[in-house]
Amino acid sequence: LGIAADLRTALDNGALDVYFQPKVTLTDRHLVGVECLARWQHPAQGEVSPEDFVAVAEHTGQLSRLTEVVLTQGLRRCREWADQERPLSIAVNLSVRTLLDSRFPDQVASLLEQYGVAPAQVTFEISEPGMLGDIERVLPTLYRLRDLGVRLSVDDFGTGASSLSYLRQWPVHEVKIDDSFVQGMATDTGDLAIVRAVISLAREFGLTVVAEGVESELTLDLLEEMGCEIGQGYLFSRPLPYERLEAWFSAQT
Ligand code: G
Ligand code: G
Ligand code: MN
Ligand code: NA
Prior knowledge:
Blueprint: H1 2-12, E1 17-25, E2 31-42, E3 46-48, H2 50-59, H3 63-83, E4 89-94, H4 96-99, H5 104-115, E5 122-127, H6 128-133, H7 135-148, E6 151-157, H8 166-169, E7 174-177, H9 179-184, H10 189-204, E8 208-212, H11 217-225, E9 230-232, H12 242-252
Parallel strand pairs: 2-4, 4-5, 5-6, 6-7, 7-8, 8-9
Antiparallel strand pairs: 1-2, 1-9, 2-3
Helix pairs in contact: 3-5, 5-7
């Protein structure tokens, strides 16, 4: 298909962009890291949603290259920030299919070495619903990644209908509360209850909690009251290209 060939060309030519969305501490809006998000401007069709081109990559054998492009761009910036004494972490989204690739942890190890980035500066986000579907097969890769020293985050948490007890069994460091609950919590008592429960459970298990999709001051205040430490969302910043992220950062300090 045309789109698969176009994606290949974009990957070959470095035409795939990576945007960065700030993750901040809720108490003082201090920048702690960025989520790296793939963006593709198709020459004829305009912007293609990452959900669509990640699916194309998965079905046409291009997923490992796509993941490598996003990870290396993130590592490159992470290294620059470390050199500037700004120890920001990076987060990269992984498809479950990447976790089924037994070579992936070795690729990560060699890229970390190549870019001179400390493993603890890197978080991989894995969507909860995807992870649940294949947990037995992805666990070995999760353990190998954890043993490398990178951090693992359960993304879109709450949408997978997993038993909360799984959180204790998975080798993860962080949960990201899905934006649907975060956006609803200011007006919907059910969403509020879910957010409160996830925060308290995650804290009991010693996991970092990140709220995604923070769009209002009211939501920010509620999250802070409940003990959530880190947030991400349009209230702070949209995903930005590198130069605009740096401008945003300069304007904050
Ligand atoms: O950035 P945006 O909200 O448009 O992202 C839509 C979805 O695409 C999100 O679920 C996000 O996790 C996913 N996504 C963005 N970049 C990547 C990537 O590099 N790899 C994978 N697997 N998913 C990504
Ligand atoms: O599935 P994942 O959590 O990886 O999706 C990340 C995407 O969520 C980002 O690409 C971004 O486009 C989107 N996003 C980030 N912050 C907000 C927000 O405050 N509101 C909404 N509606 N979407 C957001
Ligand atoms: Mn994510
Ligand atoms: Na989400």
